[in-house]
Amino acid sequence: ELSIERRFVPESCPRAVRPGDFVRYHYLGAFPDGTRFDSSYDRGSTFNVFVGKGQLIAGMDQALVGMCVNERRYVKIPPKLAYGSEGVPGVIPPDAVLHFDVLLIDLWNSEDEVQVQTYFKPEKCPRTVQVSDFVRYHYNGTFLDGTLFDSSHNRMRTYDTYVGIGWLIPGMDQGLLGMCVGEKRIITIPPFLAYGEDGDGKEIPGQASLVFDVVLLDLHNPKDGIAIENQLVPESCERRSQTGDFLRYHYNGTLLDGTLFDSSYSRNRTYDTYVGKGYVIAGMDEGLLGVCTGEKRRIIIPPHLGYGEEGRGKIPGSAVLVFDIHVVDFHNPSDSVSITVHYKPSNCTVLSKKGDYLKYHYNASLLDGTLLDSTHSLGKTYNIVLGSGQVVLGMDMGLQDMCVGERRTVVIPPHLGYGEDGVEGEVPGSAVLVFDIELLELVSGLPEGYMFVWNGEVSPNLFEEIDQNHDGEVLLEEFSEYIQTQVETGKGKLAPGFDFEMIVKNMFTNQDRDGNGKVTAEEFKLKDQEAKEEHDEL
User: Fold this and answer.
1) Is 37 a catalytic residue?
2) CA 68 – CA 56 distance, rounded (Å)
3) Is residue 226 within 8 Å of residue 286, measured between CB atoms?
4) Whole-angstrom distance, CA of residue 320 vs CA of residue 297
5) CA neighbours within 13 Å on the CB side: how many for 73?
6) Is 83 in the active site?
7) Which of 220, 255, 271 is at the close of a domain?
8) CATH code, 180
9) Where is this region: Disordered (predicted)?
10) Which of 50, 101, 175, 504 is 20 to 30 A (C-alpha) from 440?
11) What would the pLDDT profile of 16-38 be if each residue is shown by its tens digit?
12) By three-state DSSP, how is residue 90 classified?
């Protein structure tokens, strides 16, 4: 009788051999005395055959039924179920009992289809693989018995291909359809949907079922544009970015599977660029349009609008890019200072002008609200002479035409502030500045070009009054003492906000025309006299 001994049965047996199935198996054939007459191992290839169709000796046809892949059976076949009384001349003697040690490697049926088993699927799946999509995935490729024949992981590079247009074996084309990025599935492919009777001529033998353990990393279509997901849009959005604007923003850059490839946060510095001018990849140029200051959005960029087939640095070729951005500020090079008045006293008659001495409080911040500086925390006002270059140009402009008690917000673009370089450790480069200002005191300045004016009539003997020792020469000490007396007695007024000694020295130098440290009567002239002489000469 036929004797079957199951020497090894795998724990998992999803499928067993049935008549009509095609099998691939290894075997050792021997006589009862142990003499070997045949071995598939010696030939280096499995024995491939349909079961139950008369292609095998009857005993083997029966012995294979019910076997699992990786199962090992020891089979004793009597002559009547083997080669009978005739045997096989030169190989099998008549009436021989045959012993076979069989290991089943593969099993399939001509009616099989691609089998898909998903063992992990992300909670969010906004998009699945469709025909003509381009995908990037990792895989381990094995035979049904678990033998590894290929792995993208070993090459440390994804497999990148179009789906459904014939670039893949038909079974893989089918098996990838409907996958989400991040999904993991096992795709089992019968040989007639893989490499068929001939195999691939290298690692994959003919008639082999293939098992691919796949994780999908990336997915796009050549027709895709960018996708924008708004994560946070400020309630107040007075202005949106346009082509030609200059933006400062933070970002995290990841691949579709969440792998981080770059981050401005890790550098502790914003990324600063013009928009719509080709300074960044095309997808980012488009994705940064229409944003508000303070807005957070996700920009998903297909590779043909990113770094293409070649990739760059940590970005692989044909990769979809995901940028989570936070817009810190933006401006346009044509921008001027923006002034918003919050409070103006009813008796606002004296307005600030160039040359006036101002005392004011301010809070300085960036457009995103980050506080830079505050005079309130210092407990003292900030004091300047308006228009004298003591503050950035934008502040000089923002303080014009202001009255005491007025409160206003002044927004200064970087080209009227601290420019591309900023102030190290304090103000970032290319930053828009916001000043909340309250003017507390205003001392009217002198007419432009004057550092000292008389409050009354000028003495006709002015030089003699200054020349106290009447030697015909005025020294700096004499000049300084005289001016100080005029200011203290109210007869004259110095330009407010400047150092007394600096002003006096400057006035004296203007009179000391030959630069010898002394002013003579011939050199000494009032400002209106200088203007008249120049006019006469002209």
Assistant:
1) yes
2) 18
3) yes
4) 16
5) 21
6) yes
7) 220
8) 3.10.50.40
9) 511-538
10) 504
11) 999 999 999 999 999 999 999 99
12) coil
Q: Show the domain range for 246.
A: 227-331
Q: Phi/psi of residue 154, each to 5°?
A: -65, -30
Closest by Cα among 1, 147, 13 to 72: 13
Does 535 fall in a domain?
Answer: no
User: What tokens appear for 109 in the block?
Assistant: 């049926």
Rounded to whole angstroms, the Cα distance separating 528 from 452 reads 13
Which among 38, 95, 262, 324 is annotated as catalytic?
38
Question: How many domains in the chain?
Answer: 5
Which member of 57, 186, 228, 339 is catalytic? Answer: 57
pTM score of the predicted model: 0.78
Place of tokens 């002044």: 410
Q: Give me the catalytic one of 100, 251, 330, 357.
A: 100
Q: Exactly one of 4, 22, 25, 27 is catalytic; name it.
A: 27
Pairing of strands 382-385, 357-366: antiparallel
Q: Is 22 a catalytic residue?
A: no
Q: 187 catalytic, yes or no? A: no
* 136: DSSP letter: E
Ranges under pLDDT 70 in the chain: 527-538
435 an active-site residue?
A: no
Which residue type sits at 8? F
Sign of CA dihedral 386, 410, 374, 330: negative
* pLDDT at site 538: 28
Report the DSSP beta bridge partners of residue 28.
39, 101
Read off the tokens for 95: 């009436």
With tokens 């309130």, the residue in question is 376
Active site residue 57: yes
The one catalytic residue in 83, 134, 249, 251 is 83
**Rg (alpha carbons) of the chain, rounded to whole number:** 46
Angle of helix 476-488 relative to helix 500-511, nearest 10 degrees, comes to 120
User: CA dihedral defined by 488, 491, 496, 497, rounded to 10 degrees?
Assistant: -30
pLDDT for res 481:
85
Q: Which of 295, 280, 249, 297 is nearest to 431 (CA)?
A: 249
Residue ending a domain, choose from 422, 443, 464:
443
